[in-house]
Structures are given as C-alpha cells and as structure tokens.
Amino acid sequence: MDNNSNLKGFLRRDGRKGIRNAVLIVYLVECAHHVSKEIAFYFHGQEVQVIGFSGCYPNQYADRIMNAICTHPNVGAVLLLSLGCESFNRKILQENIERSGRPVYTIIIQQIGGTKKAIEAGKDWISKALVDIDTVERIGITTNDLVIGTICGGSDATSGITANPSVGRAFDRLVLDGAICMFEETGEMIGLENIMSQRAKTPELGVELKQAVEKAAIYYTRMGHGSFSPGNADGGLTTIEEKSMGAYCKSGNLAISGLIKPGDRPTVSGLYLMDVVSDGDPKFGFPNINDTSEVVEMIASGCHIILFTTGRGSVVGSAISPVIKICANPETYERMKDDMDINAGKILYGQATIDSVGQEIIEKVIAVAGGQKSCSEDLGHREFILNYKTFEPIGPACLPV
Amino acid sequence: MNKLMQIHPDDNVLVIRKTITAGDEEEIDGVVILYHANIELGHKVAAKKIQKNELVIKYGVPIGSAIKDIETGSHVHLHNMKSDYIPTFQLDNQFKNGQ
C-alpha cells in the first residue's frame, strides 16, 4: 500500500515491528500494585504504563499472557515489581524479556527494603530506560506488518447495522493487503455456529469453529448468564442470537483462516477467530469479566491496534496497543464525541455508507500506526486486566497450512 | 417507512433508524400505524403479524421466537419474544409487561 509507505515502526529482535515504544511497570501480585502506581505517578504524560497480575496463586494461562505482553512489539522496556513471596515465576519472565532484547529490571520489595526504597529504585530505573529505548531502530512498516483485532463493547442494536459491518469491510481490505486480523468472543457467536463454520478454509477447521461456539454455549449456560448486559437490552437488543449476529458482522466476508486461543500468534496473513472460553469444566468464573480482558488477550496474540465498536458508548482504551473507537449510534456519538474516533452512526442518517466508513477506519488505522494518538489513548486510557483461566493447546485442524 | 429499515428481505422485523416519537405514523406492510409512545433508535418493530412461537427473523436468521402474538408495527422486545439459547438477563422488569 502506497499510502503508508512512510510509516516507521520500532524494530524488535524477533523481527516484529512495534507502533509504540512503551515502558511497562508490571506488578506480579496485587501486593506490589501500589508501589507500581507510585513509580508511574512520576512519569505522568509519558508512555509509562502500569499492568499486572493480581493473583498470588500460579496460573499457566496468566503466565503465558504476561510473557507475551511483556515481549509485545509495542513494548520498549519492562520493570517487574515483585513483593517477593508470590508464586509468579518472575525469573523466567525476566529471562524471556532479556532474550527479546529489551531492557528489563526486577525490584523485589521485600529484598530492597520496603515501599519507599522500591519506589526510589523504580524511578531511577525508569528514567534511564526512557533514555535507552529512544535509540531503538526505526524501520518502515506496511499493512502486512500489522496485526489488528476487533471487539464490540457496550453494544446496542445499532452496532450490528453500522459500526460492525464497517469494521468487517475494513477487515476484508486489511487482510487482502496482507494484515493479520482477528475477532473473538465465541460467547457472542452463539446461534450462528453453522453459518460461521461454512466460512472456514477447510472442513476440519469448520468443525473446530463450531465446537468452539458450542463450548461457549455450554459454558455460559452453566454459569447461568450469557454474554449480555442490561444495557444491551435497553439499546434494543433482545436476545444473545441477535447480539451474536450483530457482533459477527465485524469479521467481514473473507474465509476464516484459523482458530486461535489467547497468546497464540498467527504468522500468516488472514482472518482468525480467537476462542476465549476456558477449556474443561467452568472453573475460574466467567470467560471474560469485561471488555478489557478480551482486549488484553488479543494484544497477547500480537495485536498492534484494536478496533472497538460501541453503540451505548464505551470509553475504555488499553495499555500496550491503541484502541480505535467506532461509534455505531449517532445519538451516542453526539453525546460522547471526545471518546469516539469514528462516527459510523451517520450511516443510519444516509450520510455515509458501510464502504465509506470502512475506508475511514482503514485511514485511521494507518494514521494511528504512524503515531497519531487515538481518542482513548489521548485521554489517557490504559486499562489492563488479567484473570485466571485454563486452556488446552489448539488442535492441528485449527491452523491449516 | 421513513424511520424504519429492513436489513434482510427475509426479516419479519424492521429496525428503527431514527427514534420514533409518539404521534409518528409509519406505513408497514400496507397498514398505517400510529405510534402512541416513543421507541428508541435501534429497537425493532414487527414487519408483519408474527404468531406465538414463530421465529423472529433479523439479518435473515432466527434471533429467537415470539412468546405471544405480535401485531404488525408493534415493538418487538423482551415482553413478546425470547432467546432460544440463553435467557436474557435484565436489571428490572422494564420490558417484561410491555412499555
């Protein structure tokens, strides 16, 4: 694509290219959260972000996601904050980050002598890291370097008519231009497992897609609550099937190239479905307790940018990768303009088409990849959450060659 | 159908693309419907008479089924249809008995 040939990314040791160069402060248990926030406080307005895992008990999934996030191409350096006695494997995490070529340092609060000393040491290290990462090599970046995810949050009945099909149109184009695109939330595919499985690249993948949705339906039924909020109903959505159809439009019309799980990283251009529902019996609660947990999982699978559609009006952004807001409802857009990058609701008034909004989305993706801040990013949103889950590895039919 | 749109030719519901205000008239399926209450943007109304237990079709696919007979032009929502998968959770009974 000619129109983004001037974009520059941050070249990482594994060959991936970042569109941001953030410094992460990572607490490895809730007990180290306060110290992390206090350190970040001194760098307000700079790309220093706090993320973490609250749990003290070990979890293979959380471990995998955290390792993937800390070596994400949008990340430049990482400060790990450990209380000292939690079970997170900080040694392996530090080694993986080191191997990825990034500056990394671990502060163990119990060893360094408590809160004050940990904050001072953290401030010193971050100040140096910010200078260090300024020298990261910049390199040309094009659409086929990009990984783009999509999610809908705060959906209403306009989501599936304006913003979601427009993202679908943008996805079709981005994939044809060489990008990797992903959609997720199998709990919001309930009711259309048969329709979706027909889009699989191979019949075997079709079976996997169908089983993933059936798993979600069983899981949510056992939990006693679907992926459906009271606001969805206020906004005119009546059933999970209806919400599903609307959500599904985000995936566009191309064939589905594969089924991945959080942390799996596709390497070939195409459209991928992410299965976000834990395997096995319901164990750690709801598959995704909020939109942010889905965003984090897509980022762990390599997403540089998230296209977030909303009808009711979500304001969240994300740590690590910028979130672009596409507002489906023209009345919401008028009310919450500052939070919205794109007004897809004008389609309802006949002032735009799905094609033209799709094109606007692509242009925004390119601008944000080039360093322009998205609305949520500019407003300082850097949400992050990581929960307990359990996953089996994907089967051989999930990523057909 | 000034404020209404059909998403798919097979649909038996229409989508409101501009909030309907009390006093609005819309012609649906050859019948002129006078609305006595507001219905918000994005909500659905019946494109024709829908019988109890009949599937409600939007986007050309079933999105649930009617739990009572629904007249042409009536608001279609939680008070007259349900999911055929997972029941819809509500904070209050706003939509249970019609509004």
Describe it for me?
- The complex is a heterodimer of chains A (401) and B (99).
- Chain A has 401 residues and is α/β, with parallel strands linked by helices.
- Chain A has helices at 33-41, 60-70, 90-99, 109-112, 115-132, 163-176, 193-197, 203-223, 230-234, 240-248, 291-300, 330-335, 354-369, 375-378; strands at residues 8-11, 17-18, 22-27, 48-52, 75-82, 104-108, 138-140, 147-152, 180-183, 258-260, 270-274, 305-310, 323-327, 342-343.
- Chain B has one domain (4-82): Archaeosine Trna-guanine Transglycosylase, Chain: A, domain 4, CATH 2.30.130.110.
- At the A-B interface, helix 8, helix 9 and helix 10 of A face strand 7 and strand 9 of B.
Please name the defining characteristics of this protein.
heterodimer; A: 401 residues; alpha/beta; Rossmann fold; 2 domains; seven-stranded parallel β-sheet; four-stranded parallel β-sheet; 14 helices; globular; B: 99 residues; mainly beta; Archaeosine Trna-guanine Transglycosylase, Chain: A, domain 4; four-stranded antiparallel β-sheet; three-stranded antiparallel β-sheet; 0% helix
